[in-house]
Structures are given as C-alpha cells and as structure tokens.
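Sat 14:20. Reprocessing the chain from the morning session after the first attempt stalled halfway. Input below, unchanged.
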Amino acid sequence: MKKWFAVLLVAISAHGAQQDRPNILWIVSEDNSPMLGCYGDPDAMTPNLDKLAERGVRYTRAFANSPVCSSARSTLVMGMHPVTTGMINHRRRIDIPEWLEAYPVAMRKAGYYCTNNEKTDYNFTRSHTAEWDERGNNAHYRNRPKDKPFFAVFNTGITHEGQFFPNAKMPERNKPSRDPKSFTLPPYYPDISEVRHDYAIYHDRITEMDAWVGGLLKQLEKEGLADDTIVFYYSDHGGALIRGKRSIRDSGTRVPLIVYFPEKWEHLAPASPGSTCDRLVSFVDFSATILSLAGVKAPSSMQGVPFLGKSAGSEKEFVFLYRNRMDERFDMMRAVRDNRYRYVRHYTPHRPYGQPYAYPANSNMHRAWRNAWLAGECNAVQSQYWEPKSPEAFYDTQVDPHEVDNLIDDPRQAERISNLQKKLEGAMLDARDMGFIPESMMSSLIGNKTLYEYAQSQAYPLGRIKAMADMATSRDPAFLPQLKMGLGDKNPVVRYWAAMGCTVLGESAMEAMPDLKKTLDDAEISVRIAAAEALAHLGHMEWAAPVFREALVSRDGDVLLEVVNALEFLGEAAYIFTPELVDAMQDASNRKNAFQHILNKKCNTAVY
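Finished this time. Tokens:
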C-alpha cells in the first residue's frame, strides 16, 4: 500500500510539473527579411504581425547564421554551427555522430509533445523520426496526449523565393495588387519595371503570409491555449529577392523575430509587452533558448547562448555568419556582425556575388537586372552584385543600412576593423570551421569518421589551412612565394587553397606556372582542377585541358560541380569542352543540378 501511494505521489508531482511549463509555438515563414510594418517598412501590409509585436517583444537584431534554408535550419535543430558539424553546404546530407542531440529530442525526453508542420531540410542523413512525435502536413499540437505540454512548429512557404516566379498555371498570381511604381526600392536595385513588378509581388506574398500567421493565432485562441503558450514568429533567413537570400549582408541574414508571452509567462519576457529588444541573437542560440524556457538542460554540444528563460546568459558581442556552396555555386564567405558593424571575409573574391545560379534565374527581375548591367545601365552601387568582390568588406550598418559602401580602406575604421578581424579569426578557430574542405575531397580525408570527428581531431590543421586561404584570397602578389610553397604542402586542403590563390592573382601568378604544372599530377582531383583553372587563366589551356576532360567524365557529382564552376568563368576558352560538358551534364542529371542554363549558353557567362 505504501509503495503504491509513493508511486502515485511521483506521478502527481510529474503531472503538476508538466503543467507548470509553457507550451511553445514556433511560427516560421521562409525567405523574408523584416519587411513588416512593425519593423518600419513603409510598403508593408502586415496587420497580424504588427498586432503581435504590440503584444509581444520585437527583436531588432536577430540573425540567421547562414542565408539559405538547409544550413540555417541545420543550425536551428542542432544548436551548433554547421561549419562545426559539417552541414554548411546546401543540401549536402552528411553523417553526424549519434551522440549529437537535436533540441526536439531533449524536449521529448523532458515530456514535451513535439510536432513539425512541415519542414525539416536538415543537412544530415539520420532519420527525423527521433526528433518529432509528429512530422508532416497533419502534424498538430491538438493531437498530443491530454495535459501534456507541447512544442509545435508551423512553417509556410508563401514567401519563398519560388512564389514570385512567373506562374503559368495561375496567371492571376503574376499580377501585383498594388501599383509597382508606389514602392520604395533599395538603392542596389535598378529602377526598372521588372524589378518593381517582383518587388510588389513579394510584398503581396508577405501580406498573404501575415494572414496565415493570423489564422494560426486565432486557432490557438479557439483551442483555449493562448494563455498558456509562448509564441515565436521568425523567418528562416533573409529575403527572397535577388541580393537577399544567399547574401551574408543584413539583407540575407537579418530576420524578423517577435516573441509573445501571455500574462502567465510574462516573468520570462525580457521586456514589457510592445517593447523592442536590441540584444544580438542568432539561430545558434534558439535551441538553447527553447530548452531554457522549458526548464530543460541543454546538451553540452550546443554552442548557443540562451537569451530567454532561467538559463539565459549574457549577450554575445557579435554574431558569427557563414556561407559556402549554395545550389550549384561555391562562394565561401565568413562574417561577424556586432550591434552596428559588419566585417566580411570573401574566400572567393574572384567570383561575383551574382554567380549564374539556375534557380533564382527563374525570376524576371534577375534576368532584367543582369541585362541592364550588361548594357551599362546600372550605376556603381547597382553593379556591385555582378562584379568580383574585394577580399574583405566592412560596413557601418547604422549609417549605411543597405551595406553598399565598403569602408575596408578607411583609416578612421582601422581599429574597429582590426577588432572584428580578430573576432572572426577566433570564431572560425573555435568552431573548427571545416568549410575550407572541397566537397570532392571529404570522403578521402575522413575515412570511416564523420566530418565532425575529423575536424575535431589533430588530422585537420585548421590554423595552417586558414592561413593559406587568407593569403590565397588576399589578392596580394607579395604572398606568391608562400603560395608556391603551399602547392607542395603535405596537406591536400592547403594545396587546394594555394592553387586557388594563383587563380585569384591572375597574371600576377605567372612565376608559379612551373609549380602549377607539377600540381596537375596531384593525388586529389580538386587540387588538380584548381591548378588547371589557374593555368587556363594564365593562357595555358593545353596543360589544363586533360584535367578538365578527366573531371568532366567523372562519375563523382562533386568533381563535376568543381570543374563546371571552373569552366563557367573561362568564357570562350571553355568552348572546346562543350561536347564533353553536355555529355557530362546529361549523365549527372539525376545526381546534381543539370545546369541547363550553362548548357544552353555553352559556358558563355557574357550572355547568361
């Protein structure tokens, strides 16, 4: 009898403890910056989110660490930087150690009913079954066991990039509801009809998204759960329009974040209803924050700092931002952003921001903007997107919110630049940043380990690799002796960056030709391709051609990606590879993007 009574007391205690924890609702929209009325957008029509901001706390400095969905969502679910886990390249599914725990697993262990309706898009191979009690279009908190607290995610693609591409099946979706001439364009867009049209359509999609949010909030009230539920609204990264998504600037990484606390849970809020919060927060902090609000201890693997709840920590001095390959284009960037300034390191300065991506080229705006640039109709600010980058950039987001004025050479900013350079260096080293590794080289390096385990080991000499990559992408001919030495380094990642550095230097790398020619026999195909590209730009296609042909018939999709990216920027010199390129693309169509735009234009970027 005593034993039965003790068990009953434990059960009652556990039941009561669960009732003392908040429900948590995440409302997530895709591909939109803070283009909302409550964030001061004069063209926004977002009454539901504006009302939520009046009742909640609006964060002014919230960031996606990566400006594309799969790596951004991988950050969210693990509470770890994808440059640490290896999940940085867009939609590359990789193995991660089993002991690395996603936050919904910790929530479920603590008694929460966790649902996802409906998007995962995580860059790992493990099954999502362990993460969620329910996942799919019918997943809903109302399906939980009685009196069990819930954590629920609802996601919409209404504002996704693809939603403003021309729609042949629903032509009415191609017509903006308001006069495109009435909108205020950012200065980096040319004032042409196609840009205005898509800008207006995008605001229509944001208004539709706002109505969807309103429906979810009404549903919560109808279920009688509004008084017990903390509500988060945010976007999975920055805006869908060109120079938003995929950009490491604010236009691609800054997101809206509104958190509503019902009266019962107002003691957990950082400020009173209707307030703004200027604290720097980023996606890597979200998992630990949710666990903190639920009273759950975060796994030791998580790298974020909770910004709400009992475990809330001190504000970070900066957020760490990153991107690598997105879609079919490799464009490695790293950045840190404090409460005012952003410092960016471009590790592919020889490539433009606006590389020829197949997917965004579906928009009329994209093609029209590029054609206007090719025709010389864009001013210097509007041309930046299509031109090669500086190795480094520094922006004052307070004075220059659109980040069009690079102050990297301003002597008045030297101390601030040096400070953020050191912070970025520390962030990359602390994270064991593995974004330097070419994708085609990964399997040969890691053996039977995961990428995470490899990068955490002494086998990954990150300091030496980063030092070489920094010199290689500086565009400084003074580093050519180090690049030549790097071509013979024992580590293949160092050799890869040394070869890339010769491409970045262009004709200034002429003295490295003998070393580059030797590198064409390197054991790693990615190093051979990088050396071949450098030699081709130096006028020696006859030396580079055998390597390109070898890569083009490869059955390895990663190799194919690398060689196509190299050939894309050789222009007319690549015409001799058109037959092999077409055959290789058709062969790889089921494994990688078909690059139809490249095939159609025969690698001629001038007419893309």
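The mean pLDDT is 91.
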